[in-house]
Design brief:
Elements lengths: L8 E2 L9 H9 L19 H18 L5 E6 L2 H13 L5 E6 L2 H10 L4 E7 L22 E5 L1 E2 L4 E2 L11 E4 L16 E5 L10 E6 L16 H6 L9 H16 L3 H21 L16 E4 L4 H13 L2 E2 L10 E4 L6 H17 L3
Parallel strand pairs: 1-12, 3-4, 3-5, 5-8, 8-9
Antiparallel strand pairs: 2-10, 6-7, 9-10, 11-13
Helix pairs in contact: 1-6, 2-6, 3-4, 7-9
The structure holds 4'-deoxy-4'-aminopyridoxal-5'-phosphate.
Length: about 375
Amino acid sequence: MNQNNGRVYNFSAGPSMLPLEVMEDVARELTNYKGCGQSVMEMSHRSKEFGAILEETEKSLRTLMNIPENYKVLFLQGGGTLQFSMVPINLLRKSKKADYIVTGTWAKKAAAEAKKFGDIKIVASSADTTFSYIPKVNKEDFREDADYVHITFNNTIYGTHYGYIPETGDIPLVADMSSCILSEEIDVTKFGLIYAGAQKNIAPAGVTIVIIREDLLGFAPEEAPTYLDYKVHADNDSMYNTPPCFTIYVAGEVFKHILKNGGVAPLNKIDIEKAGKLYKYIDESKLYSCPVQEDSRSLMNVVFVTGDADLDKKFIAEAKTIGLVNLAGHRSIGGMRASIYNAMPMEGVEKLIEFMKKFEAENAK
Ligand code: PMP
């Protein structure tokens, strides 16, 4: 078990751990937010108090990610999944062509959804090696008249991450950053649109953040459902309908917590250290191996196997008994996956490595 508070180290891919300090602050304010006599859960989204929360949450995110003025920040619902359709509905605006790089399950799903709306080309894929690497692409690989290029910046299931930002010239680059947002400094100006579900590095599930360059607004077809038009949300400051108020509030608290601790750069340093320790041990070990090519490894999702499915199961079950939980790989690929998002303390990674060593000694072949 963790520290002295009876909490486990939760290696879930999402929803996942949140900073304890933030949750304690939220608990303190749960029934009476800042003396206003009600909880944020009960509050009208049109109230002065919630208006201030939304405004501050956006402001904090803009500071953390250095988001330029000509980008809108939207707080939506529907998860990364709804973005798989909102992106093509809004951005297939001229040629109705878009190019996708397929690096895993979520990228594949994004491309499949887009195919319902236009001419989608898979310009590169790492399916040939069960998505163990990120393909290198150049500007020449994209169709000149593509309306956008879509990438999945961090592949939660396969544990891969782009070590570079593809050069797309004038074609807007769209990135799904659901499982890596706020884990590294990103030059937002390199992207036309960034989206991310909250339930990994930001907040409980329920809000999806969309950062969109203003010139990409206003192209949803007339017949598109109103909620699916980015411009509707931009024009209404994410208040076209009732937003996920409580999740937005927690996101704002997490953003303030990150700001208080120096922003994204120090977090990235710790994330590199955490993942570095784990990969180093896996690479040196005789029992475990990581199937991911070194230059494509994720800082957030560390995938590993013993090579024996029964032993993997035993590992996951034994780890659970000492408070290291949710270490099973995605149901589609098996093995193990340690998701070590921003809120996973170094101590959790150290405890995991300690357990892995013990398990290796006891189960050496
Ligand atoms: N994209 C990525 C990279 C993800 O990891 C996930 C979910 N884990 C999704 C999209 C889908 O997100 P949601 O369940 O919020 O729709």
